[in-house]
Amino acid sequence: MPAIAATDLVVRLGQRQILRGVSLALAPGERVAVVGPNGAGKTTLLRALAGLIRPRRGQVSLRGGGDPSQPAARAGLGFLGHRPSLYPHLSARENLAFAARLRGASGSAARIESALENVGLAADANRLVRDYSRGMQQRLGLALALLPEPDVVLLDEPDASLDAAGVGDLPLMLDALAPHAAVLFSTHDERVAQALDARVVRLASGRLTEDSRYAPAPHTPTTRGQAAPRPPGFVRAVGAMIAKDARVEWRAREQVPTLLIFTLLAAVVFDMAFIAALGSEVAAVALGVLWVSVQLAATLAGTRLFASEYERGTLDGLLVAPVDPSGIYLAKFALLAIETAFVGVAQLIFLSLLLNVSLFQASTIGAVLLASAAISAILALQSSLVVNARAREMLMPLLAIPPAVPVLLAGVGITLGALEVTPAGQQGAWFGLLAVVAVVFLTLGTVLYPQAART
Amino acid sequence: MTNDLLYLFIGFSAVWVGVFGYLVYVTGRVRSVRDELHDLRGQLDAPQAGPKASSH
Amino acid sequence: MRQARTTELPPPRRLGALREPANAALYVALLLSMGLAIFMAFVVAPAERVQAEVYRILFVHVPSAWLAFAAFGVVAVGSVMFLIRGKSHWDRLAHASAEIGVLFTTLCLVTGSIWGRSVWGVWWQWDPRLTTTLIMWFIYVSYLALRSYIDDPDARRRMSSVLGIVGVVSVPIVWFSVEWWRSLHPTPSITNPGGGMPPEMLTTLLVSVAAFTVFYVVLVRQRMQLELAVTELGSLRERLHERNEDSA
Lengths: 455, 56, 248
Hints:
The structure holds three protein chains of three kinds. Chain A is α/β, with parallel strands linked by helices. In chain A, 53% of the residues lie in helices and 12% in strands. In chain A, helix 8 packs across helix 11. Chain B is built from one helix and no strands.
């Protein structure tokens, strides 16, 4: 039973056929190098084997049956993409700890230390990755790929940006961290293949030009290694993603401080614009500014939600983890909901102070919290749709604001009651509307995000 | 009363202009894209006849 | 090898040409039903008690609205089927239908506005039916925008399918808005048992809806053929490019 098997794989990207019928098999423990010129389809082949690209035709199976598009089959899969999936604002140790939690590896501290040791980064483990050289990032990427004690390893040019010593260390890293794994890697340098004692297959114009049928490996596997490791609990993985985003935000301060200033700015600018005309109707100004600024702030933050992962190349890292992609949507939803609620409550305080209205009440705070959930359920999904669109900052408001109109209406309705412009009795229905919007879009997002993410 | 009829007239013409305009636009586009397709097919088939192909 | 590649191409088709029997039949049906609908709208249907003549806008306004709903329903069906089956013709159907749905929604808003100017004295009212319709229009405009902003065809199909499914939530909201909130918009007199519409008016309305449906089918077919031709153009260009690279 091969550890990795591809049969007649055809992959099209856009109009272009990248793989034109690739068949390949690796025995457990076998190492195979894919060599070929630029544009031959090496990266695409590895991504298809990792389940990141859905083949037009043909099949991939891991460990004799696991379809890599199923999360469970990706447990025990080590993957290093074209760019290592690293968060620049986390240290090397934190990056590895996040990856371990995402894979449900508990008691992995010893494993993390051993991985750091073996890739030669033990001394720099607490430095932020943004201060790493390109070669150090590549070493950390290798540690990340080999962390989950993988039985199947896919490495896209593992020797890229490594110095001679790094390339020389590659066999040691593999022997130490993934001794029994089947390893498929791409490279331009056949000496790397020799150093790793790997069978070489050649890829040209989307076809394997050398016989690639399954042949027993020269070194027979010592373990069967067929049982896939246990995938992590879904809730724990979502929790790990939220905690990771919170930590990145704490370090990078890309969102919350700017959003706070933005809401204060909105309060001041809108107040100045409206107060002259509506001087006696301060309540109208206050509630209009409150809900418009909540919506705009959420749109602003929502645009970055998936784009930040996509631009750093870390979205692949999340998608290749043995977690259902809906978990990514839920984690991003939770992050945006927390941020939006935070700036919404802040805006209640700003407006109460600036306009001397009693906005800071239980019902308006409740409305802001529930509306943040509803609006974030919508925006997290829309954000995932614009991730590879051109000029997504332009597109996002267009996509995000129309479906969020019910949230605006409900928020305004509740605030009117709180300011005693309308009788308070109608607030229940508006809270109901917010809850319905939140539930409907959370359901849609959970079901549909995996469809959008599947490439 | 005449105002009434004027609004009626504007309403109906807006619909007809919109719908037929769209049909004419799409049909025209289909035609021009097909012409281009025809040209490209000619270019693709050309080398089958003779070896002097690499003009583009 | 190269010869095999070029002969793989489908034979040139005259999609949408009037000569094809199915198309000819469609165009004949279109002209007949449109003619009948106009005749009935102005001659058969009686003048209304209060609004006299301007109410006749209803015979284009209501079919536009219904066909917009139907078109957006088709968008959702095409999107779901695309995500399940992965065949690009489902996506083409969704795209074509969305564009035509936006067209019909626009016409519905414009005719409604003209009618409102005559009867209410204003072009626009912040009424639930009108407002929700406008929001629905925005949602599908954003659907078309999303399509035009994504260059990778696979991503474009996937992402817009998701949005095509999400967007259809707006259709029942528009439909039921007159019942959920107090509205100035005339309530549907067809679904109301014993509603105030005389039989001639009702027949005329149904004939108009039928004519608009034929028009919708004609437009969707034509738009899908355009999309098919454009896609084919893209792949032909790609092939030509690859071949020139090969021979270079």
